[in-house]
Amino acid sequence: MPTRRVLAIPLEEVVEHFGLNSRQDVKVVAPEMLAGELIARLQAAGRPLKAEELLQGIEWRHSAGDDPNLLCESRQFAAGLAEDTLGPFAICFANEKAPQDTHYHPHHLEIYFSEHSLGAEFRLEANSPIEGIKLASGGVLVFAAGVVHRARLGGMTVVIEIPAVKNDKVVADL
């Protein structure tokens, strides 16, 4: 797989993508592309997933409802990193219409950025109290590995996972 040094993601392309697709979140950089067999199984379970195709070039573009989503695999950015990760990061976009579950990641941290209101409920450890935070005008929230959280998105939000680790999401209760 070729290495990648630059990726440009125009915000207007993400907005256009949401306008053309029923699902209101889109992966742009992920640990790996979903295999056709896994997509078929998830679609049969009612998940509105689309096929994925490797992005060619440096600029990401939206896809129409029936076209595959363009995606970079995180390992394309991994030149010089240790081999135990699938890449240095993963990127996802979501908005207030994307369902948010309560979860944690055992092996990576998660960064949320938005210019819209952004909040979360979270707990630092199993027996710690539930806390909440709200950034009324947007900003950045960072959750370290192991922090159980549920984000509250008020608009377009960028979610960055560092490093990219496959199957590192655990659904949990607050």
Please name the defining characteristics of this protein.
174 residues, mainly beta, Jelly Rolls, 3-stranded antiparallel beta sheet, 12 strands, 33% strand, globular
Low-confidence stretches: none
Alpha-beta classification: mainly beta
CATH class: Mainly Beta
Q: How large is the share of residues in beta strands?
A: 25-35%
CATH topology: Jelly Rolls
Distance between the termini: 40 Å
The CATH superfamily is identified as Jelly Rolls
CATH architecture: Sandwich
User: Helical element count?
Assistant: 2
Spatial shape: globular
Give the biggest sheet: 7 strands, mixed
Strand order of the largest sheet: 2-3-1-4-11-6-9
Q: Over the alpha carbons, how many angstroms does the gyration radius reach?
A: 16 Å
Give the number of domains: 1
Fraction of residues in helix: 10-25%
Q: What is the N-to-C order of secondary-structure elements (H for helix, E for strand)?
A: HEHEEEEEEEEEEE
Counted beta strands: 12
Mean of pLDDT: 89
Can you put this structure into words, describing what you see?
This protein is mostly beta strands and 174 residues long. Helices cover 11% and strands 33% of the residues. It has 2 helices and 12 strands, in the order αβαβββββββββββ. The strands form 3 sheets. It has a 7-stranded mixed β-sheet with strand order 2-3-1-4-11-6-9. The chain has a 3-stranded antiparallel β-sheet with strand order 8-7-10, with no helix packed on it. Strand 7 and strand 8 form a beta hairpin. The longest helix is centred in the N-terminal third of the chain and has 10 residues, at 11-20. 24% of the residues are buried. The model has no long low-confidence stretch (mean pLDDT 89).
